[in-house]
Structure formats: C-alpha cells, structure tokens
Design goal:
By secondary structure, this protein is mainly alpha-helical. It folds into 2 domains: 19-89, no CATH class; 100-155, no CATH class. Helices cover 44% and strands 7% of the residues. It contains 6 helices and 3 strands. The protein has helices at 61-70, 76-87, 91-94, 100-114, 126-133, 142-165; strands at 37-39, 42-46, 53-55. A hairpin with a 6-residue loop joins strand 2 and strand 3 (53-55).
Length: 166
C-alpha cells in the first residue's frame, strides 16, 4: 500500500541573479555599492550606508563584520535582518573540535587572571558543571593546576618583559 512519493523538485531560486559573479553572491553584498572602487591598487567595497571602503580581496568576513558590528550609519532593522541571515550559517559550530589541551590552558589562564585559589579545584561541584558542557574534560587536582599555572605564569612574564623592553 505504501507508495513512495518523495519526488521533491528543487527549483533554483538563484536564476534571476546570474549577472552577479559567483563570488559576490554572499548576502552581505546587498549592503555594499555594486561597483568596487580601486584604492592604491586594491579593490575595495563601499558601504552603502556610511561610505566606508573595505578590503574585499580576502573574502567577505570583514564586510560581514562591518555590517554586523562596526557600521554606524546602518539602521537597526537592516542590521538585524542581516544578523538573522548570518545565524543560519552554523559552520563554526559544526566544525568545532574539543581540544582538552587548549581547554586546560585557557582554564589556567583564567585562574591566573581571576586569581582563583588552586584549592577551588577540589570543589565537588566543579566537575559536574564541566560535565554539563564537555564530559571529556577532566579537572586535574590542584597540584597539577598549580604547576600548569606556574609554567604559564613564567611564560606570560617572559612575553610581557619582552614587550616592555621595546
Ligand atoms: Zn557602513
């Protein structure tokens, strides 16, 4: 009795914008002038709202950031509409790979900066909290954290000493 009726037709809606080069199909381009301008030999995109000239040859991320955050002349409705189109691209979430080493380094960095006593790592409520985010991450004892912190603190000191000398 079951009849398979899954013949969906995906009519392309992109056909009407065939004049636009493939690389410029990104949604962000509707917020920029159609023609790029040449500034010191570089092609730049011009913001429709504030006239800012932005480097376009390394991809559209700076163009997106400008519309999403920096532009002062864009109206809120326009910005929100753009932000809602950005949310549909979940690539950064999809490719996220948990790295316990990076995580531990960042944790230690936070502890140094926030002056968290190492004894706090013995707190029985810490691991359950971390488990709720990433069960693969194991909290180390306070001695390990202290050693990590010491090493990192020396490293940070070296870096800041270097930058103060210049
Ligand atoms: Zn702008």
């Amino acid at each position: 009795m079951a009849t398979s009726d899954s013949s969906e037709s995906h009519d392309s809606m992109d056909d009407d914008i065939t004049q636009v080069p493939r690389a410029r199909r990104s949604k962000v381009w509707e917020h920029y002038q159609q023609d790029l301008v040449e500034v010191d030999g570089d092609l730049k995109a011009v913001c429709k709202y504030c006239g800012a000239e932005l480097q376009a040859k390394f991809g559209t991320s700076s163009l997106r950031n400008h519309i999403a955050e920096s532009c002062r002349s864009i109206d809120d409705a326009c910005r929100n509409r753009f932000l809602s189109t950005m949310k549909t691209t979940k690539t950064s979430k999809a490719v996220f790979v948990f790295d316990p080493k990076v995580c531990r380094e960042l944790m230690v960095k936070f502890c140094i900066h926030a002056k968290i006593p190492f004894l706090k790592f013995e707190d029985p409520y810490l691991q359950p909290w971390i488990d709720s985010m990433q069960p693969a991450f194991q909290v180390k004892g306070r001695h390990t954290i202290r050693d990590d912190a010491k090493k990192m603190y020396e490293g940070i000191k070296k870096i800041s000493n270097l930058s103060y000398k210049t």
